[in-house]
Design brief:
The complex is a heterodimer of chains A (338) and B (300).
Chain A (H helix, E strand, L loop, with lengths): L15 H24 L7 E6 L11 E3 H13 L6 E5 L7 H13 L10 H32 L1 H15 L7 H8 L3 H25 L3 H9 L4 H30 L1 H5 L6 H11 L3 H29 L9 H10 L7
Antiparallel strand pairs in A: 1-2, 1-3
Chain B lengths: L1 H6 L7 H12 L2 E13 L5 E13 L3 E5 L6 H9 L6 E6 L2 E2 L7 E4 L11 H11 L4 H14 L15 H13 L5 E5 L7 H17 L3 E5 L3 H7 L2 E6 L4 E7 L14 H21 L17
Classes of the chains: A mainly alpha (338), B alpha/beta (300).
Bound molecules: adenosine-5'-triphosphate and magnesium ion.
Chain lengths: 338, 300
């Protein structure tokens, strides 16, 4: 007799098979709800899609009208001796069905731009990635060293952190107009907004991580003859390296959240322009596709960085990785799960 | 009439042991502590004196154990010796010169394993050598020699997280000894180890000490450990921390675990218990008697 696994044991990891199931479910559940709302006619579906207009004058095939209006117009038509329109329940246009969005994931890339100087989706995406990259790289170039100095030397923190804390509460988009005035209307002000949105958080987050270094290691290094410079570069920084790397992963996600507001600064561009444009044409399946692509890029980058992190920090105490657990599960052909 | 003589037994030394102590005291003093006082301000605005007017000297290649009840200032003392803390008054002399600040001429092994987790065992040992400006190839060669000495050459490329507690402390010893310190300071280095590993480590430490020119100061609260390791035992008392007695251990060297039952060993042990235990009983709080079980039979 096997003991039933307990799901609500505090702090206890489930088995690797259960972990993968849960990971898949985490995506499949929302997808399932979306599919239910889209495909089951009696769930939500507040509108009617007209199939045969009958004698209602302004009805056309594929027109979306509210149930009440549809019934009213039909009643009027029948009373006037005409034929009633027929239709099927439908959802509003801003909620396309999963299959439409799935198709759009492909067609969005294949659709040529409508106007001459508009960009293809992949070009828009590339523009956005470049904006993020430069904004984040510039922010890190200053923010990481400054954060490390703040964390290691309290006087630097006392000098820097009050003002950083102050500016941090000013929303980065508020600087958009200023950025345009100073940097023009093209790429630079967008990078500046990403920079402003990331930098101040970055200094504080990095400083906090570095402040948590183990003082016992500093003392050990001192008794081994390490000077002030070596304490910083050979002890404090390496002792925090894994945490700093993970902070950077989180901060990169933070930078992405500023993308949409950054890209409407000056001349709208990148993925934001694509999304706005598609919304204007009422191609909501393309809008969803673009949003999902942003999510996929984010998830893939983050998991990629996590994977790289496990390689470049060999002293890290390994927690079982999701990818490895998944591969192990695939490798175990029909074997009994533990 | 036998009780007083028995009480003095720990002072009696076999001729060979007495001769050894005579020669030991002829050796130059490496570490000297003069009138050392350290007090800390408390939250209430008062002062707590952790150490008061402490004085003692350690001769070259001497093994001194420092023992005393919890809170008597042992860690405070060793941090002052290491230069990690400043005395309120008094001074610490190394080879006759006052010390200020930490320096690799006083190596330290801490109770918590303070190995650098991001460096391999070999690189941990190389750390002090490289801080002293030694070029990498030579530092590596020397580090390997030290690892050989502590018997961990096979683990040179392992990371600290992959080692057991005893192995970590051996690396820590190698790391502290590599820059050739005059004094090795050890603050309850084996305190976190299980009894078996602990006695192995004591044996290892004596072996290492025999092969290296270093003076050792070793803090412990384990009486047997102190007797097994030390030439002399510095017994401190608490509140404030002062020297209570400096005991010359009459157990002959080389030491061996079987000596634990020898008369000399037991005599010293009795004396240490006399010095430390009564105070323990004074300080142990009496617990109020509350019976929380209805079981009829008594445990005693
Ligand atoms: N940084 C400090 N600030 C205030 N008081 C301190 C500080 N360090 C030590 N003390 C006090 O000094 C006394 C001696 O402490 P210490 O840690 O040296 O004792 P110890 O002999 O090492 O004890 P243990 O056997 O428990 O390790 C204690 O009463 C402690 O409260
Ligand atoms: Mg202590």
């Amino acid at each position: 007799m096997t003991r039933r696994p307990r799901w609500f044991a505090v702090g206890k990891e489930p088995s690797s098979r259960a972990r993968i199931t849960l990971g898949l479910l985490s995506f499949l559940l929302p997808l399932g709800i979306w599919a239910l709302v889209s495909y089951v006619p009696w769930i939500w579906h507040p509108l009617v899609r007209v199939s045969v207009p009958g004698t209602v004058e302004w009805f056309k095939p594929d027109l979306l009208v509210e149930h009440a209006v549809f019934n009213e117009e039909n009643a009027k038509a029948v009373a006037a001796g005409g034929t009633a329109a027929t239709g099927t329940p439908a959802n509003p246009i801003f909620l396309p069905a999963p299959h439409a969005v799935g198709r759009a994931l492909w067609t969005a890339f294949a659709t040529p731009p409508i106007l001459r100087d508009e960009l293809w989706l992949h070009q828009s995406l590339w523009l956005s990635i470049r904006t993020i990259f430069w904004g984040f790289a510039l922010s890190s170039l200053i923010g990481v060293p400054l954060g490390i100095l703040c964390g290691a030397y309290p006087p630097v923190a006392r000098l820097t952190e009050p003002v950083v804390d102050f500016v941090r509460y000013m929303p980065a988009p508020a600087f958009g107009a200023l950025a345009v005035a100073v940097l023009g209307i093209y790429g630079a002000p967008k990078i500046a907004v990403i920079f402003l949105g990331t930098f101040f958080q970055q200094v504080l987050v990095i400083a906090n991580t570095v402040r948590r270094h183990d003082p016992a290691l500093i003392e050990a290094a001192q008794t081994l003859g390490a000077g002030p410079r070596q304490l910083l570069l050979r002890v404090i920084v390496p002792s925090c390296l894994i945490d700093l790397y993970n902070d950077q992963r989180i901060l990169l996600g933070w930078a992405w959240t500023y993308l949409i507001v950054a890209e409407v600064v000056g001349i709208s561009s990148g993925i934001t322009f694509f999304i706005n444009q598609q919304a204007k044409y009422r191609n909501f399946d393309n809008v969803y596709a673009a949003i999902i692509i942003i999510g996929v890029i984010g998830l893939v980058t983050d998991q990629g960085l996590a994977f790289i992190g496990r390689r470049i920090f060999p002293w890290q105490v390994r927690r079982s990785s999701r990818l490895r657990a998944f591969l192990a599960l695939l490798g175990r052909k029909g074997g009994q799960g533990v | 009439m036998s009780a007083p003589t028995q009480a003095q037994d720990y002072l009696r030394q076999a001729p060979a042991v007495a001769e050894r102590f005579r020669r030991l005291k002829e050796r130059p003093v490496v570490l000297e502590v003069r009138d050392l006082t350290r007090s800390f301000p408390t939250a209430a605005g008062k002062e707590v004196t952790a150490l008061r007017n402490l004085a003692f000297a350690a001769h070259r290649r001497e093994f001194t154990c420092i023992i005393g009840p919890s809170g008597c200032g042992k860690s405070t003392l060793i941090r002052l010796l290491a230069g990690l803390d400043e005395p309120t008054s008094g001074e610490v002399l190394l080879d006759g010169k006052p010390v200020s600040g930490p320096c690799p001429d006083r190596g330290m092994v801490f109770q918590g394993y303070t190995l650098f987790p991001w460096l391999t065992v070999k690189r941990n040992v190389m750390f002090g050598l490289q801080m002293a400006g030694m070029e990498k190839g030579q530092a590596e060669a020397e580090a390997l020699q030290w690892l050989e000495l502590v018997g961990l050459i096979k683990f040179k490329d392992a990371y600290p997280a992959q080692l057991s507690g005893g192995m970590k402390q051996r690396v820590a010893i190698a790391r502290a000894l590599a820059p050739n310190p005059r004094v090795l300071l050890m603050d309850e280095p084996f305190g976190a180890l299980d009894a078996q590993t602990r006695s192995q480590m004591q044996h290892h430490l004596l072996e290492i000490w025999r092969n290296v020119d270093v003076t050792i100061l070793f803090i412990t609260h384990d009486l047997d450990e102190a007797i097994y390791l030390a030439d002399r035992i510095l017994v401190l008392k608490a509140h404030p921390g002062e020297v209570q007695e400096l005991i010359e251990v009459p157990v002959p060297r080389p030491r061996h675990p079987a000596q634990t039952n020898s008369p000399e060993f037991l005599a010293v042990r009795r004396r240490l218990e006399e010095l430390i235990h009564p105070r323990l009983e004074e300080t142990v709080e009496k617990l109020p008697i509350v019976r929380l079980t209805k079981a009829g039979d008594d445990v005693e």
